[in-house]
Specification:
The complex is a heterodimer of chains A (about 110) and B (about 110). Chain A is an all-beta fold and about 110 residues long. Chain A has no helices and twelve strands. In chain A, strands 2, 5, 6, 10, 11 and 12 form a six-stranded mixed β-sheet that branches. A four-stranded antiparallel β-sheet of chain A has the order 3-9-8-7, with no helix packed on it. Chain A is globular. Chain B is mostly beta strands and about 110 residues long. In chain B, strands 2, 5, 6, 7, 10, 11 and 12 form a seven-stranded mixed β-sheet that branches. Chain B has a three-stranded antiparallel β-sheet with strand order 3-9-8, with no helix packed on it. In chain B, strands 1-4 form a two-stranded antiparallel sheet. The chains are: A mainly beta (about 110), B mainly beta (about 110). The interface between A and B is medium-sized, with 23 and 30 residues.
Chain lengths: ~110, ~110
Amino acid sequence: AQSVAQPEDQVNVAEGNPLTVKCTYSVSGNPYLFWYVQYPNRGLQFLLKYITGDNLVKGSYGFEAEFNKSQTSFHLKKPSALVSDSALYFCAVRGYGNKLVFGAGTILRVKS
Amino acid sequence: DVKVTQSSRYLVKRTGEKVFLECVQDMDHENMFWYRQDPGLGLRLIYFSYDVKMKEKGDIPEGYSVSREKKERFSLILESASTNQTSMYLCASSFRGQGYTFGSGTRLTVV
């Protein structure tokens, strides 16, 4: 069965510093991986996805993610964090029937 | 852009009531999904549908049913609402698993 782990409940970073939100996955076959962001009392917004190709995927709002097959990881990164990046971030893997399996989420807090 | 619209942002219902949550998408997507979101548990799949009148149970279908009579509309039904169904409910649609668009969510409180 497919699964996703986000090992950190919360990540704290100072504005202007690089940020990383970690994600590891378990899936049979080639993974389709996604990152979403959620602001308070809102739905999920798509950030980026990996299906095939380059291991470094660029997405919305300056975010990128690095796919590492040997470590089964898909960490979300940004070179310089903004206070407005503070939100809840979800990693997901596509499973049977095109359904997404989500991690528990990581709260990102960026302090000025 | 694909738009997924959930009919209510906030709902308060009484225990035992039958509750309908409506979701409409405007881009002819085959796949539609209902998730519930609870703190610390992430998003859990309740039901999904890969075409009109087709439905499959997700991970936590107990206490829920769904209806998909038209391609653009996917309804979640709580047959007899209970307090443990108080949650954020998120609808999503996708085209062949390539992209997923979520609605803004419905925060349901059962009292």
